[in-house]
Specification:
- This protein has five helices and eight strands, in the order βαββαβαβββαβα.
- The strands form two sheets. The chain has a six-stranded parallel β-sheet with strand order 3-2-1-4-5-8, with helices on both faces. Strands 6-7 form a two-stranded antiparallel sheet.
- Helix 1 runs parallel beside helix 5 (about 180-185) and helix 3 (about 120-130) packs parallel to helix 4.
- The protein has one domain (about 5-185): Isochorismatase-like (Rossmann fold, 3-Layer(aba) Sandwich).
- With about 190 residues, the chain is of the alpha/beta class.
- It has helices at about 30-45, 100-105, 120-130, 160-170, 180-185, and strands spanning about 5-10, 50-55, 85-90, 110-115, 135-145, 150, 155, 175.
- It is globular and about 45 Å long.
Length: about 190
């Protein structure tokens, strides 16, 4: 039986309103990180693989996650330990131009539990790409966060953005469930 790995996507300082100098604060990131920390603790307790992914834009003219900035560092609430790989990406999709797939292959991972930000961008992209690579995906909806968006002159509240993307992922790509229910996968 192949192991289940935890993917923690972009839990970075610039997303936290509680971080001084945050450049792109998300709605609900603290709750999402608290739930991700519960998953992280259980994966560590069970000795299951944990992979952290962090985004840096390649140039300093980006709106957030500037290269080598404190804002681009992983938030202390879900910080990696030495044995946990950290994948650096420069694209929305965590698999694109990174070693993520190779790490998962080397670990013989078949299932993923995914948490992080932003629901409508990097979580959506990594989940769809992971399915294309043949992984069974599970998204912890209460361990993901996003922000209000604007389209065609209307503001779409973060809650609606998040729910729409979770509904789309659950329709054809992933099992989307709560942190509590997903913990049962690893216990």
């Amino acid at each position: 039986m192949s192991p289940t790995a935890l993917l923690l996507i972009d839990f970075q300082n610039d997303y936290y309103s509680t971080y001084a100098g945050a450049k792109w604060a998300l709605s609900g990131i603290d709750t999402a990180a608290s739930n991700a920390a519960i998953l992280l603790a259980e994966f560590r307790k069970q000795g299951l693989p944990v992979i952290h992914v962090r985004h840096e834009f390649p140039t300093n003219d980006a709106p957030f996650f500037l290269p080598e900035s404190a804002g681009a560092k992983i938030h202390h609430s879900v910080a990696p330990i030495d044995v946990e790989p950290v994948v650096l990406k420069h694209q929305i999709n965590s698999f694109r131009d990174t070693e993520l797939h190779q790490i998962l292959t080397n670990l013989k991972v078949g299932k993923l539990v995914i948490a992080g930000a932003m629901s409508h961008m990097c979580i959506d992209a990594v989940t769809r790409a992971a399915v294309d690579f043949g992984y069974e995906c599970n998204v912890a909806h209460d361990a993901c966060a996003t922000l209000d968006l604007e389209f065609n002159g209307e503001t779409v509240p973060a809650k609606h953005v998040h729910n729409a993307f979770m509904a789309a992922l659950s329709f054809g790509y992933s099992h989307v469930d709560s942190t509590d229910n997903l913990l049962k996968l690893v216990r």
